[in-house]
Amino acid sequence: MRRRLTAVLLALCIITSTALPAFASEEKDQKGEGSTAEQSLLMETSEDAGGFQTVEEASTLETGEQSLSEGAEDLASVAETGEQSSLAETGKESAAESAEELPVQEKIKPYGSPWINSNVYGMITEDTPRPGVRDDFYLAVNYDYLNKTKIKPGHEVIGTEDEISDLLIDRISGLMTDSEDTSPEADRVRTLYQMYLDWEGREKGRDYISSKIKTILNISSLEDLSAYLGSWEGSTGTNILEIYLDTDIDDPGRHMTDIGPTSLTLGTRDEYESITDSGKRNKKHSDSAAKYMLIQYAGCSEEAAQELIENRYAFEKAVSESMMNSTELAAGDSIRKRTNIMTAEELAAAAPALPIKEMLSAVGFDPSLRINLEQPAWLTKLNELYTEENLEQIRAYLVCETAAGYIGKADEAAYREAKRLEREFSGLSASREDEYYATNMVARVLWQDVDKMYVAKYCSPQMKEDIRTLMEEAISTYREMLTEETWLSPETREKAISKLDHLTLLPVYPDDDKWLDWSQISITPAAEGGNYALAMDEISEAQWKICQQMSFEPIDKQVWGTRTSEMNAAYAPDMNSIMIYAGILNGRYYDESMSREEKMGAIGTVIGHEISHAFDPTGSQFDETGAVHSWWTDDDRAAFDKRASKLIAAYDDIHPWKDGSACNGTILQGEVAADMGGMACMLRIAKTIDGFDYDKFFRAYAELDAVGYLENVMENIYKYDPHPPYYLRVNMTLPQFDEFQRLYDIQPGDGMYVAPADRIAIWGMGRSGE
After folding, report:
1. Percent of the chain at pLDDT exceeding 90
2. How far apart, in whole angstroms, are the C-alpha atoms of residue 242 and residue 235?
């Protein structure tokens, strides 16, 4: 949870025809990741599409004319992933055949240092020596669970998140099939759910999908391309740039129009420079989805489809060269580098070849909003590439993205192929039931409808008040921590406390009058010619129009605009607000019967983590209103950066991956700082409780993170994710604190020992206020 700054992550008004494989878009991090800041109005309305996408874009400051065809051959070799089988008969298997089991890793040769990567499913077996708490606390606590728990068919992970996700899916599935609920929300939800599973109805959507793909295939000139990109369909669908609504970086009470870089199939510029194993899997998955749909729905030959795919990568490689890489995006100066305010006229002048004014007009946001260009060098490069000479490559990019994005919305054969590709991509033993995928998709697309139904049945005002009380207690404790941070000057400390005092608390679910108005969302019934693909596009269009309306209105910080029935928690730096979602208040995270120590080790550390994000390397650049504004003295900022550099260096020296590669501390610094800040906050509260059971507390924290991913899934998720693997979130966090070191009598030479001088916690300095 706690994933990324809104300007990078939410893209709340982007609905393209591409999406992550299903697993990648589901909840993956128990401790509070995901949607933050602003109203993430538009959720994914596509599934099972091409490659795994991350939000890290890509780029250097390269300019100069370039013909894409010149680089196509080189790109093809960079992204080569092996032969692809003929697709003439692909996807024809029955539902029963789609569940054919693939081999699941059962035993893996251990790797990782200084601790083995025990979050890889199959890494821990009965032959694995059981460590003591002094050497590997995470594995010592979770050894039996990781050794004995078997992954379920169709699942990618074992652990708390999987257990809670199953619980939530079961509950939401029950809501979707409850015919007694006659509300407009329930009607929309049931309609979309039934359409998802209506294979006969999906077949009727073939012509609709084919027309969408062929519209792009039929583009024959740069003039045609500009007309398409500047149309409603082009501007709000697959495009060569992203336009979305965000919070104004200098005035958080207003919206701002953001211009983001081209979405890359392989996720980041890094992969186009040196493709990883994860990138190769991404490419194979995306290529296979695009090729299948181009052959089956656009009438392309295999050769023609392959040529389109190669041209797509020629364009992506060329444009990626001028994008920021994952490390640059995570760097402390990234926010300001990605803040470049200009008028529509200035934006159009920066890229005169592109139909930017037409795109902005088609999107329909308030024209008085300020415009932010995230990556100027990228736009310069894109403008250079936008020529007749490169028309084939740009068109190929658009058509492959669009085609792959429809594979999960198409007929049953295409759907089965999508699930086969997902299993291959993730290393899954089998697909899950179709009803599971239907429930999951509807919950993500019609998320507010589902939220209202979920809250009505499973939440209460008392739960909301209980969580608010926990949040207020943690904030009060954090105020004491800040007061005693001796390295801060009085001036900066006062500003930090003011930011804390201005936090907006959003526990469990929105107040009754703070839901968005979704009354205009309607779905054409099957009896009137509706089908699943059309319904998804209708929802997308309606949500875009809601976004248009929102752009003319001031921002209300009490409006969530994001899904609460998922296992999540978040801090929004541009709102200075904290959300604790209803979905996370289950299982090992929260139960009324838990002891005080267990609650503090679970939901308590989540709350403390989210508060800490207000003061992490990213959040610390936002003031109490949510504006990007320095509230630090120069000396204090230098002292903060020195602490952050120490944290980065420590993680740069950890090697969790099979190929021996290290963590990227720059990418991880925000989440690491928040983990340690949250722990410091809870330990300070613990000091005030007579007879506090520290052993129970620390074990609850470690057990919360008992997780084992399929190896492919682990790498696909974490290679560029800002969260460290779970075992590191435990083993790197706890040794920073004297309470932990003393309790288990950890000494120099023990695996969990960290000398006081080497501790890396930014807040609390590993002393919990002592």
Report:
1. 80
2. 8
| Three-class secondary structure of residue 661 per DSSP | coil
From the number of C-beta atoms within 10 Å of its C-beta (0-12, 13-18, 19+), residue 11 rates as buried
**Closest among 42, 44, 54 to 719, alpha carbons compared:** 54
Question: DSSP secondary structure string, 517-563?
Answer: --TT-----GGGT--HHHHHHHHHHHHHHHHHHHHTS---TT---S-
Q: Give the residue ranges of DSSP H helices in 182-301.
A: 184-196, 199-203, 206-217, 222-229, 232-236, 269-273, 277-298
DSSP state of 34: B
Which SS3 state, helix, strand or coil, does residue 500 take? Answer: helix
599 has a pLDDT exceeding 70: yes
Q: Is 223 exposed, middle or buried (0-12, 13-18, 19+ CB in 10 A)?
A: exposed
- All structural domains of the chain, each given as residue ranges with its CATH number in brackets, are 459-510+560-766 (3.40.390.10)
Determine the Cα–Cα distance for residues 349 and 343; give it in Å rounded to an integer.
Answer: 10
Residue 251's pLDDT band (cuts 50, 70, 90): very high
What is the full DSSP assignment across 36-80?
-SS---------S-SS---S--------S---HHHHHHHHHHHT-
Could you say which DSSP state residue 570 is in? E
- Distance (Å, rounded) from C-alpha 65 to C-alpha 387? 10
**Cα-based torsion angle of the residue sequence 329, 332, 333, 335 in order, rounded to the nearest 10 degrees:** 60
Q: What is the mean pLDDT of the chain?
A: 87
C-alpha distance from residue 333 to each of 59, 93, 358, 763 (Å)? 15, 51, 32, 21
- Strand, coil or helix: what is 508? strand
User: In the sheet where 504-508 sits, what is the strand order?
Assistant: 504-508, 577-581, 569-572
Q: What is the DSSP string of 157-207?
A: EEEHHHHHHHHHHHHHHHHHT-TT--SHHHHHHHHHHHHHT-HHHHHTTHH
Tell me the mean pLDDT in the region 400-416: 97
Token digits of residue 527: 């009896």
Query: Are the CB atoms for 711 and 427 separated by under 8 Å?
Result: yes
Q: Which two tokens stand for residue 308?
A: 């389109």
The 10s digit of each residue's pLDDT in 11-70 is: 333 323 333 333 223 333 334 443 333 334 544 444 444 332 322 222 222 223 334 444
Site of tokens 């928040």: 674
Give the Å distances, CA to CA, from 55 to 34, 205, 664.
Answer: 12, 31, 16
Q: Which pTM does this prediction carry?
A: 0.86
* Contacts with 358 (C-beta within 8 Å, 6 or more apart), sequence order: 226, 229, 230, 231, 235
Residue 5: per-residue pLDDT? 29
